[in-house]
Amino acid sequence: MLQKKVYLLQQLGLHLGNSYGWYLRGPYSRDVTNDGFYLETIQDKIGEVKQLLSEEEILVTQKLQGLINDARKNISENESGNLELLASLHFVLKYGYPKPSSKKMAIAQLTQQKTKFTTDAGKVAMQLLEKYGLADCGVSDEQG
Question: How much is the pTM?
Answer without folding.
Answer: 0.83
